[in-house]
Write a structure and sequence with these properties.
Blueprint (H helix, E strand, L loop, with lengths): L6 E6 L3 H15 L4 E2 L8 E6 L6 H15 L4 E6 H5 L1 H5 L6 E3 L21 E3 L20 E5 L1 E2 L10 H5 L3 E2 L2 H13 L4 E5 L20 H9 L6 E4 L9 H9 L6 E7 L3 H6 L6 H14 L4 E8 L6 H13 L4 E6 L17 H26 L3 E6 L7 E6 L4 E5 L8 E9 L5 E5 L7
Parallel strand pairs: 1-2, 1-3, 3-4, 4-5, 5-6, 7-10, 10-11, 12-13, 13-14
Antiparallel strand pairs: 8-9, 15-16, 15-18, 16-17, 18-19
The structure holds iron/sulfur cluster.
Length: about 450
Amino acid sequence: MRSMKKKVAFYTLGCKLNFSETSTIARSFTGLGYEQVDFEQKADIYVINTCSVTENADKRFKTIVRKAQKQNPDAFLIAVGCYAQLKPEELAAVDGVDLVLGATEKFKITDYLSDLSKNDMGVVHSCEIQEADFYVGSYSLGDRTRAFLKVQDGCDYKCTYCTIPLARGISRSDTLDNVLKNAAEIAGQGIREIVLTGVNIGDYGKGEFGNKKHEHTFFELVQALDRVEGVERLRISSIEPNLLRDETIAFVARSRTFVPHFHIPLQSGSNAVLKRMKRRYLRELYEERVAHVKRTMPHACIGVDVIVGFPGETEEEFLETYHFLNELDISYLHVFTYSERANTEAERMPNPVPMKIRNKRSKMLRGLSVKKRRAFYESQLGTYRTVLFEGENKGGYIHGFTENYVKVKAPWDPALVNTLHRIELTRIDEDGLVRFDFIPESITA
Ligand code: SF4
């Protein structure tokens, strides 16, 4: 007998924070008796959680809308997320969109479901971003192996290329008690790894009780999370170099749960470019942070965000970045090609770099990232690590990540899904992934 439950499907663009929020929004639907289905399936309601950083965000959005319309032309289509906050009218004008909710409304989405009849033009419920000064907690549950736990939102920095403060508002944090409660809830679901996420999580504690003060620090958050019963592995998603303190590094090195993996945005290796970006450090601080991490944990994995083609970036400044990264003891790069964003300071800066040159520079840094990752993996061969196996059978293989973010692979075995095992890293295979031998006294089956 066909279930009379209304079906809802979600599509998320962008960062871990967006995935944690989609998952929480989805639970508010299922809590009201909706049935959640995959986006590829026919649904009565489609929700798209948008991103303002994704390149061609507008094209991507339209493609996803068309996909939903093909599944069910009568479905009610809702857009939420950063792009919806920044350009609500633009999204509302896209054929098929019925409702656009801004940053203050996205978590109240189930209040807008009384009338699901299609609208000729999307209805916008948005706000001035200043009104988004309250905090809503969230965490993802979609993946059996790891969960993204939101601990902080918004940002008070003024990086000249960035729209996130315009899309997500001021820096504010969850209460420490609520973060610990969420972490325990996640662990209670049998999920073995929690990834702390936010916009500027090193700024954790700011606005915890709706004011500008820091009630707690990121270091206190890390210490408290390390004591939560049942939590096995904690990973810091990304942290600003100027907010990565010695005590946090030292604590991670001896902690029961935090893994030796730091993703630290650099953006440029040229101090002149860093100043034009209004980043809050110069390359010397970054270099010193990397050295401090590697001194404390030589096997730590360090990932780096870097932007190429920032306005005015000369060939010399780009080569400064290239050589700086080439010298640095880091493990991989996330390379972003600069693209103009409306209402940012950088958008009005002179001497835009031709796209052809931006792409050439991006290609060079992606090549460097492959070299760095290989060198890091080679440095780990012969060492003993703990892998957390994921849940997907990819071409007859199961994959997993060690605590220091080495990606390993083994023949598919369903019994390994979502288990932690002690292994010895032995060789790098033709796909650049690491093979290993199990160590008999595996930790937990
Ligand atoms: S720190 Fe800078 S780049 Fe990061 S979210 Fe804040 S303003 Fe954007």
